[in-house]
Amino acid sequence: MSDRRALANAIRFLTVDVVQKANSGHPGTAMGMADIAEVLWNDFLRHNPANPKWINRDRFVQSNGHGSMLTYSLLHLSGYGLTVQDLKDHRKLHSRTPGHPEYGITAGVETTTGPLGQGFATAAGMALAEKKLAQEFNRDGFPVVDHFTYVFVGDGCLMEGVAQEAASLAGTLKLNKLIAVYDDNRISIDGETPGWFADDTAARFRALGWNVIADVDGHDAEAITAAFDAARRSTDKPTMICCKTIIGYGSPNKQGREEVHGAPLGVEEVARTREHLGWKHEAFVVPDTVMRAWDARPRGERAEAEWNALFTAYEAKHPELAAELTRRTAGRLPDDFDAVVASEAERILAQEPVRQPIRKASNRVLGNLLASVPEVIGGSADVSMSTLAWTGAARSITPDDFSGNFVHYGVREFGMSAMMNGMAAHGGLIPYGACYLVFSDYSRNAVRLSALMGLKTIFLYTHDSIGVGEDGPTHQPCEQLVALRAIPNMSLWRPGSELEALVAWESALKREGPSVIVAARQDGAVFAHRSGDLDGIRRGGYVLQDAGGKPDIVLVATGSEIGLVLEAAAVLEGQGKAVRLVSIPNGNLFAAQDRDYQESVLAFGTPTVFVEAASPLYWYQFLKGPGTVVGVDRFGESAPGPEIYRVMNLTAERIVSEAGQFLC
Amino acid sequence: MSDRRALANAIRFLTVDVVQKANSGHPGTAMGMADIAEVLWNDFLRHNPANPKWINRDRFVQSNGHGSMLTYSLLHLSGYGLTVQDLKDHRKLHSRTPGHPEYGITAGVETTTGPLGQGFATAAGMALAEKKLAQEFNRDGFPVVDHFTYVFVGDGCLMEGVAQEAASLAGTLKLNKLIAVYDDNRISIDGETPGWFADDTAARFRALGWNVIADVDGHDAEAITAAFDAARRSTDKPTMICCKTIIGYGSPNKQGREEVHGAPLGVEEVARTREHLGWKHEAFVVPDTVMRAWDARPRGERAEAEWNALFTAYEAKHPELAAELTRRTAGRLPDDFDAVVASEAERILAQEPVRQPIRKASNRVLGNLLASVPEVIGGSADVSMSTLAWTGAARSITPDDFSGNFVHYGVREFGMSAMMNGMAAHGGLIPYGACYLVFSDYSRNAVRLSALMGLKTIFLYTHDSIGVGEDGPTHQPCEQLVALRAIPNMSLWRPGSELEALVAWESALKREGPSVIVAARQDGAVFAHRSGDLDGIRRGGYVLQDAGGKPDIVLVATGSEIGLVLEAAAVLEGQGKAVRLVSIPNGNLFAAQDRDYQESVLAFGTPTVFVEAASPLYWYQFLKGPGTVVGVDRFGESAPGPEIYRVMNLTAERIVSEAGQFLC
């Protein structure tokens, strides 16, 4: 026990010394969870610091990400190559130890955490991915996908609704290899939690179908060991280990109190803590014996070597499965993917244009692509049919059968999105998930994290505007398009035709980052594409129809409003005007094109009217001369969709009249 | 029992006939919950249809708002003046019976519902308001604030995280007069719920500190009556009544199945349902005996008359309290409010400008205003001190003492915001609630509903930009400002000085609609206001500093970036340029000014540089000539705030250089 305590104290002192040096940071969590982390990392976690991307490693997520020094200390001590200098650079510019753990910045960090509750939900997504891939790829005697996902959570995580959503679904889906550890220290930023958090967490998680191991002393290595042992034996339930801990454990004057949560201890208290815990080493010095005990490289190498041997045998016996698993975990699309897309494009260009709901066009191309991209795992927040996320190729994943490719997330948009992040971060799967556009609001911060991490996730949002009609303003998005497009590193598609929908899905499946595909519930316009349009769509915006020569007026639309500008153009052409029609299905992508291309499409300086049944704010950036934006800047009403368009004055007549202002 | 069933069947047939006529809508919920609603409304609910705004009425919220025909049937039958024609106009333009219940459209609808889970959370806010006002105003023998809040929830509501957040806090705060009824019908849109929702809901709510009445037959009036009786006796816990129901009860071929959830039954099935339930009346006909039994006006009048008598006696004994309660429930600010604001403005204008964090400036004016506006109830999602939502005038509300004026919501941004909506809709209180700007994402749909309803709520968001620094990109908002400003009917302030902060709070406290106040964590610039600025701030934007005459260049900033444009202006003036500085603390308000005023401030056509440490998208609408927007269009980094400004190239030098492009 005393040896173990010394190992744990290495975390404590790396943490307090680093936070003291940075003069900002959160020491309390790392000090409080050090004993738990020590047991987990030294006795249970199967990972190989020399290869942080080994696909069968156990995943570790610290959902209470503000306590990032816990993660950084663990990575340093166990051999991930994070140096003492890296630790000293905590919270400094371009360091490998930023304020919160960030995916892609630090080897061994499995997902970005900090926004509370989401690390937990993301971990649940990883566990779902593991279970799905295990069922798909494992064969008798070849458990090639077989790992645990461990997640540490604090009080804050458990207060957030997103954690409830994920916990409920994880329980329902029996994600037994998800093991959560609750850092029950009764302290959050406002002080002692009982005034605002009186849940019986153990009982709550039992009610959600979890295996709960309650009342574990989070500072007793034996009790912690027993808990992890029991957790790993769970065959049909995820496990929640509730650990009683003392925040800031070891600080004689500050432990157990809020002040140790988010501020340095102070030089004197650091000294007292050294004395109190009998740590006789200088700042940043960890004795060799302790470093050696922590070093996870030798056993990590052995673990991966064993797995490599297993995989070699698997490869011999199941060469196609092995090749497929290798391809998918490497994140490579199938070799024939471009050919499949090309043949879809040919099919669409050859067919007579038909009047059809845009969500239906999206559904058709998605269904046709899915057959050749088996790593795609769909799902929806209880609106599988109305979003048409459900394709002919879809089969439900159920609590007892993960062979399907479609997750019924229930009415849990935020949980869905965070779990999709977990699946994407896990690897081997490309998740898409659907809900109504207006309820993207519920999940917005998970979509943001997806963009921040650059994960390949696809958010399918239908019911995209006032066209939703009778369900009224609660269900009619208007500000959501600009809000989503404003997220850095986001790629938002709002297709208006089957060809545009095809490119949207193609792009989303290829892009190393998240995409949003917004597909109207109502009919799109009927118009024929030229084959050259394909390239233009792939650049985000293009000339859909042109009078030739210098246009008198440019009309720009997206998605369901293409029909309106087609109508308006006919009227204006009847008046002898040279009209150019532009479709910009992806403003993010179009804005990233060079100025010459943008100019060639928009003919800057020409009078221009942008039309979209949404907040006009997004389009002013492209208005570099006379013109206006026709959009929706108030809440909708409950009535049939076409009536709402009239009430909102979003009509061809209005467009003609606005255009008229700028035409002599 | 048969009589009661006939009363309930009136709801069922109004619903199926209306939905059939509208050929769209959701019959299942109303049919399934009709028996429960009948018992509640006829035997328990204390309300007066002749005065839907009677302040001591019981509140009724249907959180599963898609089943709105239940609410509309109840309002029609009990005497709220909703006519058969109104019902027939369900989901038609400008009707009083829109697709989802909407606050302000239909008398008797207490809050807009439809976005699942939020009706429940909003109801919890109403119950909190009741408890707070009761403690403040009731005196021995005078329970002038004394009512229940009833809320109906479906599976969807309980899957949403926001419901968990509110349930957890309601349990913690012992909101014993909140009574929820769970419509446990095992059906959601994707089909039978056990595949995605396996919670033991009764056990879960017990774990959250609720009084749970489980296994109630939702079609047995006696069982339902017993449950409500027991619920109303709870002295220290909110109550969850779990009712087993059959969705679409009475439809012989469709009940208990998903298809009855969101589509008309069809003419034939409607006829079969009539036969099955023995309902011999034509469509839209409810026999007089049934109508009379439902009519709640006589007993409603008596109930209000009794209360009026009580209040008259209270007025005699406690005239000041009575006057105060009357003022506050009428939504009138204190008579001296303008004088208090004026004296604050005087204080600020007289003082030497000081360097101070903008959140601190906000905190000071708020604290000074609070003394004269006792109806303000603050709170924060576990960041009371760092947002400085906590003022010198703040006292905590605790589970056992509601005399305070500050709610510790815990780490529950969405639940907080929805509960604030409930408090505002309840009346008698003006809620403000604080969190970090980036986490407004978590609560976004509640903020939207606040705007849709036009509620007087105030969302205080600090840590407003890359200036947050070391906590890194997860904590550095950039797209949130444009996303919030894009919500229709929103008023977003981003003050840059104490005077601007004062006007922000003044405006927020006066406005009949929600406001967002965004206050930077870091220091604002040091500059002196002229007294005339007050008027300009109240118009959302104004000339802060001017060279006189026609400017060569206009620099526009908000909040923490005013310092940058002041610096840049000094450089440009040194180069002999005539520089105008404009501050637009509230772009929503400024955009609503007439064109002449906007022109007088922005001098349209003059080269202009807008500067804000956020997504630039919002500002292009005001750029009507040469110029640019200097903003942040990528994720931030973890480092001290000033360094991030440099890394993001958001500096005075950059502004000077951008301006130079447009100057000859």
Automatic annotation (TrEMBL), chains A, B:
Biological-process GO terms, alphabetical: pentose-phosphate shunt
Residues the record lists as binding substrate: 26, 261, 359, 386, 463, 471, 475, 521
Pfam families listed in its UniProt record: Transket_pyr, Transketolase_C_1, Transketolase_N
Cellular component annotations (GO), alphabetically ordered: cytosol
Co-factor binding comment: Binds 1 Mg(2+) ion per subunit. Can also utilize other divalent metal cations, such as Ca(2+), Mn(2+) and Co(2+). Binds 1 thiamine pyrophosphate per subunit. During the reaction, the substrate forms a covalent intermediate with the cofactor.
Residues reported in the UniProt entry to bind Mg(2+): 155, 185, 187
UniProt-annotated site: Important for catalytic activity, residues: 26, 261
Cofactors named for this entry: Mg(2+); Ca(2+); Co(2+); Mn(2+)
Cross-referenced PANTHER family: TRANSKETOLASE (PTHR43522), TRANSKETOLASE 1-RELATED (PTHR43522:SF2)
This protein's name: Transketolase
Organism: Rhizobium meliloti (Ensifer meliloti)
Species classification: Bacteria, Pseudomonadati, Pseudomonadota, Alphaproteobacteria, Hyphomicrobiales
Gene coding for it: tkt
